[in-house]
Amino acid sequence: MLLLEVISGERLPKPERGKMRVHKINNVNKALDFIASKGVKLVSIGAEEIVDGNAKMTLGMIWTIILRFAIQDISVEETSAKEGLLLWCQRKTAPYKNVNVQNFHISWKDGLAFNALIHRHRPDLIDYDSLRKDDPITNLNNAFEVAEKHLDIPKMLDAEDIVGTLRPDEKAIMTYVSCFYHAFSGAQKAETAANRICKVLAVNQENEQMMEDYEKLASDLLEWIRRTIPWLENRTQEKTVNDMQAKQEDFRDYRRVHKPPKVQEKCQLEISFNTLQTKLRLSNRPAFMPSEGRMVSDINTAWHNLEGAEKGYEEWILSEIRRLERLEHLAEKFHQKAAIHESWTDGKEAMLTQKDYETSTLSEVKALLRKHEAFESDLAAHQDRVEQIAAIAQELNELDYYDAASVNARCSKICDQWDNLGALTHSRKDSLERTEKQLESIDELYLEYAKRAAPFNNWMEGAMEDLQDMFIVHNIDEIQGLITAHEQFKETLPEANKEREAIQSIQAEVQKIAQSNGIKLSGGNPYTSITPQSIDNKWEKAMAMVPQRDKALQEELNKQNSNDTLRATFATQANAVGAYIQAKMEEIGRISIEMNGTLEDQLTHLREYQQNIMSYMPEINKLEADHQHIQEALIFDNKYTSYTMEHLRVGWEQLLTTIARTINEVENQILTRDAKGISQEQLYEYRASFNHFDKNHSGALNNEEFKACLISLGYDVENDKQKRSGQMVSDDFRALLISTGNSLGDSEFNRIMGLVDPNSTGSVTFQAFIDFMSRETTDTDTADQVIASFKILAGDKNYITADELRRELPPDQAEYCIARMAPYSGPDAVPGALDYMSFSTALYGESDL
């Protein structure tokens, strides 16, 4: 009876104290009745045989007791007690060499199996590698002694008996092995609990690492954008075109070298964020909220500002180049006209201040007066040039020319000199007119010559000035206009030549009259300093400038034709690239909607599609090269295409980002499917329903489309406890539509929308739809399960200590828990007690760490 109380853990009826046979029989019967009450059938075993010392009966009864209370409760994967115990031994000793447990007799003769069981659970007690298969006695005694000393398992077997027997007693070994099973069963529960906690903590540590990586990458990208935008917003003006072109080259270097890696980082950041959120949802963790200012939307806003700054900077550079080019042209034109004017005015002040008329004859005075009239005509003709010089100087000031001070000084000097010339001219004319009455003789031929020679001379000077005039054009139409004007000028040359011959004929007539009348001419024409030789020289010089002007205009026409060829080349490539990008964007839209084959097939197809798109990169590079030639040629318009390089760059970046996002969506669907056990057929069903209600193929459902999609899948939100079955009979579906007015219940639908659209954007993406359906159809780990696991490790206490965590968990995860668990403050708290319950709920977002 004492044996039964010890092995069963229960109290038996009080035994009779007498020593007579009848007392012994009664006590044995009480024991047998207890055994029978436990469902054990005793066949041919009576109290008299036991009392009389029947060894066979006594041993049979003892084995029955052992089998019932020590072995029968053993169960592994719903097997019988013996099979379960054997399966447990096989699993525990599987990793050990020279151990192959197939039964409970000869498999244990060499003693290695006993040592392997102990070493598996308590490696600190056995040095398994020092044991030899050819020394069974030593192996057995080592196992028996260690079990008795450290595991409180009595030495039930004799090593020499086991080794000396061909087939050791199976029941004896089973009985002894069952003691090991019961000794280690508690450790097995702790190991299972520790494994669960390790799994949960490993997921949490991985998620935290991904969060840290996201925060760092987001901070680096935002810092780069913060540093880059001020550079792009710098509008410090340069003095020359070359300096601005150097800035333009720096901007090209930024576009080609510095920005592309940041585009990749931005795309990778979005992919990492989506993958992290998917993993958090799959592990039943709260969604990740980045630090303030580091949301994906914040990064997109910063990126948008960066691209706006880029566009503004590029437009400013081109505008500044045009402005400086215009300034340099105007400055050169100003100095050319100023030099011509200063050359013309050289000596005029001295001529107007001389008093030669005081000693001249009447004819000479009249000649001086006529000469002065011719000078006034010449002076008036030069008024336009002075006004042009002043107008150019004013325009240079308005355009903020860097050397405006010297231009203003020179212009002011010319204007002051011009005013002085006007005053001197008026003064000299008054003086000549006062003496005009004393002078009678006028040579009409000289006068006619002077009057015709002066305008013609001015015309030639103006023509030569126009033939040397600098020009700048930006297209074929402008150069054609200059060529047309030049051709019109050449058509006037025959009439001008007739005028030149007529002027020369006047001088010839003077010579003829002088010769015929014997008159000896003294000096030149008194009315003008323009000689026939100077007219002929200027005429020859002007005629020599005509072909030079023809050549310059033709060279500019060739240049503009070349520029037009560059425009056409760029337009052809840009139109092809633009059409390619648009076609690929439409194809990606169709692919993301159709999604044929398994998810792995879709992923493979999308990656091949991505590689196909990346193979088009040489065409983009070629277009960049064409665009660089366009900019180097200072071409600012293109009538052959509506595309700009900026539009195509944005389109190409959007194409790469869209295919990357589509691949990431399929990868997240694979993660969801594998983690939640969703079948391929279910995913097809979800995709088909989603695509059916996505009428505009936008990749997202609005509220009404999402509600209709839920109804089509049989989701009844009127009953909060009912989950989606996947199908509804027609009567149920009709009843659902009638009871809800052909719509889902407002409160339940608002709850669902809070899960799939937490930001209240009014649309539901396919990934959010899949996450919701996976949560509704599968089970996940919960905080209660983790709390139960910690409770096992804590020995059913409401708290756990640091030593217990270090004993049961790997070092890094034990320290992770100790650093984050709050002190336990319950009534049963002890020094160093930690609150594992609040820690577990915090893992799932139900409280704060």
Automatic annotation (TrEMBL):
For this protein, the record's InterPro entries field holds: Actinin_actin-bd_CS, CH_dom, CH_dom_sf, EF-hand-dom_pair, EF-hand_Ca_insen, EF_Hand_1_Ca_BS, EF_hand_dom, Spectrin/alpha-actinin
Q: Which GO terms describe its molecular function?
A: actin binding; calcium ion binding
Q: Which domain of life is it from?
A: Eukaryota
Domain Calponin-homology (CH) stretches: 1-70, 79-185
Matches recorded under SUPFAM superfamilies: Calponin-homology domain, CH-domain, EF-hand, Spectrin repeat
Query: Which positions, given as ranges, span the membrane?
Result: none
Q: Which PROSITE patterns does its entry note?
A: ACTININ_2, CH, EF_HAND_1, EF_HAND_2
- Coiled-coil annotation reads 365-399
Q: Which residues form the EF-hand domain?
A: 681-716, 744-779
Q: Which UniProt keywords apply?
A: Actin-binding, Calcium, Coiled coil, Metal-binding, Repeat
Q: Which family does it belong to?
A: Belongs to the alpha-actinin family.
Q: What is this protein called?
A: Alpha-actinin-4 isoform X1
Question: What species does this protein belong to?
Answer: Austrofundulus limnaeus (Annual killifish)
Q: What is the lineage of its organism?
A: Eukaryota, Metazoa, Chordata, Craniata, Vertebrata
